User: Fold this.
Amino acid sequence: MSLRDKLTEIKQKGLADIDSAVDLKKLNEIRVHLLGKKGPITATLRGIKDLPVEERPEVGSYANKIRDAITQAVAAHREDLEDAALNKQLAAEKIDVTLPGKPVAQGQPHVIQQIIDEFVDLFLGMGYQVLQGPEVESDKYNFEMMNLPKNHPARDMQDTFYLSKEFLMRSQTSPMQARALEKHDFSKGPLKMISPGIVYRRDTDDPTHSHQFHQVEGLVIDRHVTMADLKGTLLTMAQKIFGDRFDIRLRPSYFPFTEPSVEVDITCFNCMGKGCDVCKHTGWIEVLGAGMVHPNVLEMAGVDSKVYGGFAFGVGPDRFAMLKYGVDDIRDFYLDDVRFLDQFDKRGN
Amino acid sequence: MKVSYNWLKKYLDLDMPAKDLAEKIERTAVEVDSVDVAEEGLKKLVVGHILSMTNHPDSDHLHICSVDVGEESPLQIVCGAPNVAADQKVIVALPGSRIGGNVKIKRSKMRGVESEGMICALDEIGFSKDVVPKEWADGIYVFDDSVPVGEPVYHYLGMDDPIIDLDVTPNRGDMLSILGTVHELAAIYDQKPDIQKPVVKEAADLNAADELKASADETLAKTYKLRVIKGVKVAPSPAWLQITLWNAGIRPINNVVDVTNYILLKYGQPLHSFDKDKIKGNVQVRLAKKGEQIKTLDEEDHDLSSEDIVIADSERPIAIAGVMGGYNTQIDDQTKAVALESAIFDSIRIRKTAQRHVLHSEASQRFERGINPDGVEDALNEAANMIQELAGGQITKGIVTASEYHPKLPTIFITAERTNHVLGTDLSLSDIQAIFDRLGFISQQADDGLNVTIPARRWDIHIEADLFEEIARIYGYDQLPATLPTGRQTIGTLTPAQKLDRATRHALEGLGLTQAISYSLTTATKAQLFLMRQSKLTKLLSPMTQDHSTLRMNLLSGLLDDVAYNHAHKVNDVALYEIGRVFYKDSDEQVRPDEVAHVAGVVTGNFTAASWNNHVHPVDFYDLKGIVNQLIENLGINGELSYTATDKYPEMHPGRTADISIHGHYVGFIGQVHPKVAKQFKIKETYAFELNLQTLIELPKSDDQYHPISKYPSVERDISFLVDHEVTNEQVVDLMKKRGGAYLHDIHLFDIYEGKNIPAGKKSMAYSLLYVNPRETLKDEVVTAAFEKIKKRLTDELNAEIR
Ligand SMILES: [Zn+2]
Assistant:
């Protein structure tokens, strides 16, 4: 048997041994045995000195190839064995992914706050500023500057919480119209503002009345602001807050501080206009009051009504929330029942 | 106002369904509360003729009637009404019929006698008892003889007439009348209404002036007119008039009073009829005198105020003007002569009088909203004619006029340009003129616009803007384009304070607290709990309930109420915060309180839900302190945050409460709610904080600044020692900071222990100290030197025993 054949035999047997190694320990033993100083290759190569000098390099290089082949075979088999071991471990590590996740503490904004924020964000995007006024208001701003002089039939003392002859809990956010008009410098640009806040009425609390609720007042005054602009603004508001399928309609109404005055209906949330009990089969639901700011309001605030004019509107977030979510008792908003509040946790949509 | 569709049709050509008409009114003029047809829901109610009647053998009040209902043979019907009699024409509910309240009538036996249906009273077929005439109030209704037997009853009772109930806005007092509504509909449908001016038929030889004299204070009654009708015979009104009134929600009384109510409905002009013979001397319109009293028609006694307008004769008040007549001069069965009043009273006084005496009548409602000065005399004349037609007698010649008022009709100039400028429309002047023609407003072209003369019946219109509204609503709001404001641009941004308000909310929500909104009005007791500064109470003058009578001076009491509500509903884990205003007053003289924004939070129970892998512990002081710390850190306020133990809040645990200050500014407090207070609120162990949000917003803020992260490795050293129980973390940390050397970067308390293996009165504390040098690698000996220095100082200054 030639030296070369011997080496070939070692290689074949070695590769077979490697293949049959069942674990890393065995594989290592085989590797050490084959490639070690006391291994068969080294032993066989001792016979190289008996070969003619010219044949020696060729056998030497053949031996190196065999070493490489064995090294590679060991590496390959090692990887297979490691994979198998890892897979076995992973299989053993399997968990029940349907078990509940660990509870974390996460609070929610109040549902009415969410609606107010929606209004605020929408109108910021349309270039409005956000103004806030006092909750204890003077009779002057709450009524007189709103074109409700003393003895006006629409100013019912019975409906207002007075602190004194002069001061009261504001019954509307409208006084912010007068306050904003007085302060605004029209040479710097138009007045565009919304004013969210709490208002108070002398009502007995029941499912549809609350002595405390919220309003968002809106006001735009410039040299040329039209009633069509009011309609477009309110339509935009309805569609951005409720969706493009919603429409609005205006109906005549009466507020002392606007002329013309309108009541604004929105497509019924419940039936999308087909008619149902919620909308008394009209397909529409009344959601807000609006109008063109009365010249008296402008003049009383020192704004020339022949040059400047515009629109105002007032929305009730409580009513919006009731309609949007089908809440049938306004008092639920002020009980702060955690189970109630936590329902309104889907934000950003 | 309940408006009869059939009545409207007398003046206008209307043939659309009542619902469509109502919709049109709602879209163009005023809101409609309801459209009702009384017969809807009723079935098989016919006119019956009682042929004969016998007594029921087993009853002392039931009768057995044989009733012709237009069928082959009469029906036998048992009836218990006290006024039932033979030969009456009555309302019969046939077997299988449906009457009021959705009640079905079947053949039945009444005390052994078969009854084939029922003879009905008006309230049994759906009439409100308030409108049923007195004569039919306690029994069945009897038709007059002309009504055909066997026919459905509805038409003969006005129950087929659609009634449109208008919710008239305060400015549209003109629509509280049929004629006003007719004018409105004429404009909406572009028709010319057929309205006749009444011509009064006076007796040639009788003079009103000989019968009565009247005087009036013109500031109380701008117009005051009387007519006298002599020789009347008071009796029930004919069916058509009764029907008209009850369909409008007014109870028919007699042929004189009913006429005044009919005219009130038609013209919107309240009238009053006095029994002329009961008036002693002259009539005068004046303010009531102190101590005067009057019994009104509803037989209620009233002490009059010197602010009330009264009609008086020479001796006493005989009516509360514009509100209700007096019992002493009322029309009764014996009345022979009628003094008929048509007037305009001061609207503000009428409103106050109606409120004062809680007497809100059809009349007062109209005086409050205004009266058409052009209709006063027409209403009076038509009423006189009608009384004469229905009750006989003679109308004396002339009108007794105590005061008279004919306002100059306003003329308003309007241009197409201004109209379009305000409405955003593209109307021509002739479009606009056409709208005024429809409204019946006379307009004349002048320069580039119109001079519009406003008729007296539209006393709500004074200025250009009022006309824009008329144009807009008749033109139609649906036709208005929908645009957005153009012109100069504005930038919409939140102010820094508004951003911080949002940041506060977002931070607290992220930290696990849910936003609450509680009431600002509370009890006087709760208002002054948890006070952060001295303050007087702010109270409402006339609260609805004591529960909401005082303005809060803290947010926490509201939040504790919320916790109590949740506990009462078996929710034990509660974590809430609220942002809102509290109201402070430095003195009782200060009327308007200072409004200060606060933020407060409460936590009780477990902070997160117990779960298979979540081993919860009940919240404690330090849980909440972590939240407050993080909140204040998020707000980026400059300066050191410090907590100082305090026992100054009576509502807080004296050993578990701290004042919070930033850079020496007091901003609020944190701690455990005093167990006694918790017990009063019926809540479990609860931790709370309240902060002055306004101060937090106003305190100077630090901008985010970039510091390069050190490239050199940091060195960590742990130290553990025993100290006296009383030594605070603050003392330790202050010392370490002071003595820690230039490279001490962070101090972290990782363990604290008292109890087993620790001597009594001592505690073990363990801190981890982090050393960093941003400029070069720290040498071990440098750190060791610094660390040893701290050890020594701890030993020397705090008597620490290093372990
Ligand atoms: Zn609907």
